[in-house]
């Protein structure tokens, strides 16, 4: 392996300078906070009301809970997934390529590794914001009134890191915004449909349920649903380990690919 390749695939070299970069993203978000929060609440609320009470009136309870609560717990994780993915792709691409914000930052005494860490943590932060908004909606509808439900917030952060890292991988490869459509169509949509957001995975054919067992969103939902029922999830350490594995591997790949793209 030559010196250039060694530099690209080297472990992250971090300092505390990623904190001001993360704070910059927060300050920019504050200018659009109202619209962002309303968007996080309105979309899942409409789905929960339409599907939860519409289809719920036909199917009754699912998995020991009302259908509204069932899809609500799925949407908590779904929203974290989409929010972090969007932030890791569209927003990061704007800052990297269109606005050239990253270029300005790394010309200061801040490394690209610090910028990437800040972007990664910001995707997790945005996921927690989205998770909080939906959790409040669920509680206002009369569900999830248990202290264990608060653990869904750090779960949202972990889900955000997982899919935010995947989004940053796509960001490193994308020539334009249209490229991200592949990720939404080929990754996020199947993840949404086959991870148990709208119906139990156990109802699918055995071979499809086996494949679903490898999807990170399913592991997130397997943690969230018991917490909403005031129960400690089974195999929680395994589920957390799977999410951490996906998050770590994807982040390392995103960092290496971004180095290859920007540090030529």
Describe the 3D structure.
The chain has 264 residues and is an all-alpha fold. 74% of the residues lie in helices and 2% in strands. It contains 12 helices and 2 strands; from the N terminus they run ααααββαααααααα. Strands 1-2 form a two-stranded antiparallel sheet. A hairpin with a 2-residue loop joins strand 1 and strand 2. Helix 5 packs antiparallel against helix 7, helix 5 crosses helix 11 and helix 11 crosses helix 12. The longest helix is centred in the N-terminal third of the chain and has 32 residues. The chain is globular, with a radius of gyration of 19 Å.
Could you name the key traits of this structure?
264 residues, mainly alpha, 12 helices, two-stranded antiparallel ribbon, 74% helix
Q: In what range is the share of β-strand residues?
A: under 5%
Low-confidence stretches: none
Gross morphology is globular
Put simply, the count of helices is 12
Distance between the termini: 16 Å
User: What helical percentage do the residues reach?
Assistant: over 70%
How are the strands ordered across the major sheet?
1-2
Structural category is mainly alpha
Radius of gyration: 19 Å
Major sheet: 2 strands, antiparallel
How many β-strand runs?
2
Mean pLDDT: 89
Secondary-structure element sequence?
HHHHEEHHHHHHHH
How would you briefly describe this protein structure?
The protein is mostly helical.
Ordered list of secondary-structure elements with their pairings:
Elements lengths: L2 H6 L9 H13 L2 H22 L1 H4 L1 E2 L2 E2 H32 L2 H6 L5 H29 L11 H22 L6 H15 L11 H7 L3 H13 L7 H27 L2
Antiparallel strand pairs: 1-2
């Amino acid at each position: 392996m030559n010196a250039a390749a060694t530099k690209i695939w080297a472990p992250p070299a971090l300092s505390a300078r990623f904190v001001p970069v993360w704070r910059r993203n927060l300050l920019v978000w504050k200018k659009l906070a109202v619209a962002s929060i309303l968007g996080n609440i309105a979309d899942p609320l409409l789905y929960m009301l339409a599907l939860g009470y519409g289809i719920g009136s036909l199917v009754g309870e699912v998995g020991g809970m009302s259908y509204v609560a069932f899809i609500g717990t799925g949407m908590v994780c779904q929203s974290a997934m989409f929010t972090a993915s969007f932030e890791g792709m569209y927003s990061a691409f704007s800052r990297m390529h269109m606005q050239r914000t990253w270029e300005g930052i790394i010309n200061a005494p801040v490394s690209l590794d610090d910028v990437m860490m800040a972007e990664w943590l910001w995707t997790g932060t945005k996921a927690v914001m989205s998770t909080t908004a939906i959790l409040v909606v669920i509680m206002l509808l009369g569900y999830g009134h248990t202290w264990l439900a608060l653990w869904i917030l750090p779960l949202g952060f972990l889900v955000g890191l997982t899919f935010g890292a995947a989004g940053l991988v796509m960001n490193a490869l994308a020539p334009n915004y249209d490229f991200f459509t592949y990720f939404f169509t080929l990754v996020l949509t199947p993840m949404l449909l086959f991870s148990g957001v709208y119906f139990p995975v156990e109802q699918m054919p055995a071979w499809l349920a086996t494949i679903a067992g490898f999807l990170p969103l399913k592991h997130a939902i397997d943690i969230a649903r018991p917490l909403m029922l005031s129960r400690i999830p089974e195999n929680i350490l395994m589920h957390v380990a799977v999410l951490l594995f996906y998050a770590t591997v994807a982040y390392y790949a995103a960092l290496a690919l971004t180095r290859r793209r920007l540090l030529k």
